[in-house]
Design a protein that fits this description.
- The chain is of the alpha+beta class and about 650 residues long.
- The protein has 5 domains: about 60 residues, no CATH class; about 150 residues, Beta-Lactamase, CATH 3.30.450; about 140 residues, Beta-Lactamase; about 130 residues, Alpha-Beta Plaits, CATH 3.30.70; about 90 residues, Orthogonal Bundle (Arc Repressor Mutant, subunit A).
- The strands form 3 sheets. A 6-stranded antiparallel sheet has the order 3-2-1-6-5-4, with helices on both faces. A 5-stranded antiparallel sheet has the order 8-7-11-10-9, with helices on both faces.
- A hairpin with a 5-residue loop joins strand 9 and strand 10.
- Helix 7 packs antiparallel against helix 8 and helix 8 runs parallel beside helix 11.
- The radius of gyration is 33 Å and the shape is globular.
- The protein starts with 11 loop residues before the first helix and ends in an 11-residue tail after the last helix.
Length: about 650
């Protein structure tokens, strides 16, 4: 065994040796028992057991990476195969067969609307054992396919017939029983942002699909959707030739365009599968478009580019086009002439294309941009570009900071340091909630702000969470609101909390910001920004660390200082004044002074606190501060009069 001599007890180096040899997990697990048999105990055994746990974790992560690489390789092989078939029927058979094999499923089938009847129909199936499936009409909104198409997202169930959340129909349930199916997943077949059908994966046993399996199925749906749509266009073109022989010239032009796009798609996919440098793919794609092209990462970093975007303010034009494309989820031509196209894969945003193509019809340009985006997505998924990995590292770090129970603070601090973030300096937590529900768009739109300020950003619990450097939570929340609202085009409610200066405090600061957000909703102040400090006494109640003294000083500070410096009793007068229902006469009787004295003291208080100190909202905070000061003085055993500084 590596790094281990005969007769020696196993230690941490033994674990490393087994990992280097890629030994099975059982070999690592057995080290603890072997050490006990050889007499290890106490600290030595504890260290070995910790090394074994860490080794098993490394072994599991290595297996996960191997499985992901194998899945991506199979997915890329499928993408290559989808380019080959000419006919729709042949293509559908290939899609269902490759889907079933890639995901290890018992059955796969495809449904989309019938061209003549306008209803969904099962068009192809692989792995079926009955004759009931192919040709089945899917009417109404029953089953999973309609939900997947309507929501543009995967839908799955571990046991179809027993799942009460599903709208069942007699026809579909009959097929499910005949095939003996249990687990079913449906993913949308999409062409751009337009879902037009569904790809189903089914098993004859209960199965809980993993995130990797769902992501792979989604990517298959996108690739298959594009290939099916192209095949349908080819079939329609052939039918047009047979029907409209007198329009041979126009058809020849359309067919040539389709062939050109198909060749371009084939060449670009091959380039994406064979090249490791995105520059070569960018040059080939720009040649297809006949102009300039850039590939941008999620954070806006340029991964590769060719050509120029001429004119003054070119970079601003490109940035505006990228933002608009992500907001629209489709190819967008900005008024300045720059085209932009989001690059997605498996439901995940991988980057953006910015292009200034040659003179083509709008439809041609949009189609070419979609083909280029597909090739770029395959390239980024295959090569695992550092910019994409870095974006995930940023998101995962913030997710771990918000997790309860939290990860070890030292580990989180070190991870932050490796990506250039110092968590020992003051940071504030900002939570932004789009009132229209556009959390994904909002997350992308504030990525530029997070990048400029060297902060973190993640989607969490239906809102966007940012961890940004600074000590003023209120100002930071306003900055996020001002930047996000015009771009998003809907109301956004933003809450800030902090500052904090260590990794462990981020979770609690986030909870304060969430409570502040809930308080704003309860108060009817959505569409604005606030911090726990700005909420006054509500902020004291919402905070995990209730800093009563700071609240009292923020409300009564000038009066408290005046009493200390001049040995006066303004604070006591204020307390008695409120205690008598705001009557200067009764306050004077209780204080044993002349009413004019009380009036002069109240005038002085108005000069110190401002002329609106008796407005209902302000008066409430003053009374609360007086009571908190009195209670704090009693609890601390201080000899100050009611209302005096504690």
């Amino acid at each position: 065994m590596a790094l281990r001599e005969a007769g020696n007890r196993p230690d941490a180096l033994t674990v490393l040796g087994l990992l280097a040899e890629e030994a099975p997990a059982a070999s690592i697990e057995s080290l603890s028992e072997e050490a006990r048999r050889s007499g290890a105990a106490g600290t030595e055994l504890a260290h070995l057991e910790r090394a074994v746990r860490l080794g098993l974790d490394v072994h599991a992560r290595h297996r996960q990476r191997q499985q992901r690489e194998a899945g991506l390789s199979a997915l890329l092989d499928t993408a290559r195969d989808l380019v080959a078939p000419d006919g729709l029927d042949e293509l559908l058979k290939m899609v269902t067969r490759r889907t079933r094999l890639l995901l290890g499923a018992d059955m796969a089938y495809i449904s989309f609307p019938d061209a003549e009847e306008g209803v969904f129909r099962v068009r192809a199936s692989d792995g079926h054992v009955s004759a009931l499936n192919v040709g089945l009409r899917l009417t109404g909104e029953a089953g999973l396919g309609h939900v997947a198409v309507a929501s543009s997202a995967p839908v799955w169930t571990p046991d179809y017939l027993d799942d009460v959340r599903i709208q069942h129909s007699t026809d579909i349930d009959q097929v499910v029983r005949a095939e003996g199916l249990r687990a079913v997943m449906a993913v949308p077949l999409s062409h751009g942002t337009r879902p037009f059908g569904a790809l189903y994966i089914a098993d004859r046993d209960v199965r809980h699909y993993t995130r990797e399996e769902i992501s792979t199925a989604s990517a298959l749906g996108e690739l298959a959707g594009l290939a099916i749509e192209r095949a349908r266009h080819l079939d329609e073109a052939r039918a047009t030739v047979r029907t409209l022989r007198g329009e041979v010239g126009r058809y020849a032009e359309s067919l040539a365009l389709l062939r050109e796009q198909r060749r371009a798609h084939t060449d670009l996919i091959e380039q994406a599968l064979s090249e490791t440098d995105p520059k070569a793919l960018t040059v080939a794609a720009a040649r297809c478009l006949g102009g300039s092209l850039r590939i941008h990462a999620v954070d806006g970093t340029v991964l590769a580019g060719t050509g120029t975007f001429p004119g003054s303010g070119a970079e601003d034009r490109v940035g505006a086009a990228l933002t608009e494309a992500h907001a629209a989820h489709r190819p967008v031509r900005a008024p300045n002439g720059v085209w932009a196209m989001p690059v997605t894969g498996g439901g995940e945003v991988l980057g953006t294309l910015a292009a200034q193509p040659g003179s083509r019809r709008r439809e041609e340009t949009e189609e070419l941009l979609r083909l280029v985006a597909q090739a770029v997505a395959v390239h980024l998924l295959r090569t695992g570009r550092a910019s994409v990995s870095q974006g995930r590292a940023y998101d995962e770090l913030l997710e771990d900071l918000l997790t309860n129970p939290p990860r070890p603070p030292q580990q989180l601090t070190e991870r932050a340091r490796r990506i250039g973030i110092d968590l020992s300096t003051p940071h504030v937590v900002v939570v932004a909630r789009p009132e229209g529900g556009a959390c994904g768009r909002a997350s992308f739109l504030v990525s530029g702000l997070a990048q400029r300020l060297n902060g973190l950003r993640a989607s969490h619990g239906g809102a966007v969470v940012l961890l940004l450097p600074g000590a003023d939570a209120a100002a930071t929340a306003r900055a996020v609101l001002d930047e996000l609202t015009p771009l998003l085009g809907e109301d956004v409610t933003v809450a800030g909390a902090g500052p904090v200066s260590d990794a462990a405090a981020v979770f609690h600061c986030h909870q304060e910001a969430l409570r502040c957000l809930d308080a704003m909703s309860a108060l009817g102040t959505t569409g604005r920004s606030a911090s726990t400090h700005e909420l006054g006494f509500l902020g004291v109640l919402l905070a995990d660390n209730r800093d009563v003294r700071s609240f009292v000083d923020s409300v009564l500070g000038p009066v408290l200082d005046y009493d200390r410096q001049r040995l006066t009793e303004l604070c006591r007068t204020l307390d008695v004044y409120f205690g008598t229902g705001g009557s200067p006469t009764r306050a004077a009787q209780r204080l044993h002074v002349h009413p004019n004295t009380v009036a002069r003291r109240l005038e002085r208080i108005g000069e110190l606190l401002g002329p609106d100190w008796q407005e209902p909202g302000n008066a409430l905070e003053v009374q609360l501060a007086l009571r908190l000061a009195r209670v704090r003085a009693v609890l601390m055993g201080e000899e100050s009069a009611p209302g005096r500084a504690p």
